Amino acid sequence: MSHFTRIKTKITDKDFLIKALNLLGYSTQENVMLRIRGDHGVGHVDEHVEVAITYDIGFRKVKDGTFHLVAELDTWEEPFPIERFLQKVTQAYAKCIVQETVQEQGFEVVTESKSVDNTIELVAEKW
């Protein structure tokens, strides 16, 4: 029987999560019921998520205030493993938070670079 896998994240802010997913090129929908079909098309499994990017990949907020990645791994179609997907989302999420925080403090991001190991460096100035 197909099922959803849930992976805990450290993501806590829905707005920054949506910004991060959009930054990575994903369109998002809010408050969606994910659905996967059961084996041989018989039955189905539903899961409510606060943010979805496909019919079987989304993020659900849990009691501790964090989001869990919810995905049906049997039909995973991204060009990289789910662990790498989650790393990309987490990095974009952190980048969005840093950019907004420095802007709120009167700084402007003047350069951005990415190293071979995918580390992002932002340089901000304040005049």
Write a brief caption for the model.
The protein is α+β, with helices and mostly antiparallel strands and 127 residues long. It has two helices and seven strands. Helix 1 (14-23) packs across helix 2.
Provide an overview of this structure.
- The model has no long low-confidence stretch (mean pLDDT 89).
- The chain has one domain (5-125).
- The strands form 2 sheets. It has a 5-stranded antiparallel beta sheet with strand order 1-5-4-3-2.
- The chain contains 2 helices and 7 strands.
- By secondary structure, it is an alpha+beta fold.
- 21% of the residues are buried.
- It has helices at residues 14-23, 82-104, and strands at residues 5-8, 29-37, 44-54, 57-61, 67-71, 108-114, 120-125.
- It is 26% helix and 37% strand.
- The chain is elongated and about 55 Å long.
- α1 (14-23) crosses α2 (82-104).
- A hairpin with a 5-residue loop joins β6 (108-114) and β7.
Average pLDDT metric = 89
Alpha-beta content class: alpha+beta
Please summarize the sheet with the most strands. 5 strands, antiparallel
The rough form would be described as: elongated
Q: Summarize the amount of helix as a percent range.
A: 25-40%
Termini separation comes to: 59 Å
List SSEs in N-to-C order: EHEEEEHEE
**Beta-strand percentage range:** 35-45%
Q: Provide the low-confidence segments as ranges.
A: none
Number of domains: 1
Total number of beta strands: 7
Strands of the widest sheet, in order across it, are: 1-5-4-3-2
Counting DSSP H or I runs of 4 or more residues, the number of helices is 2
Please compute the radius of gyration using only Cα atoms: 17 Å
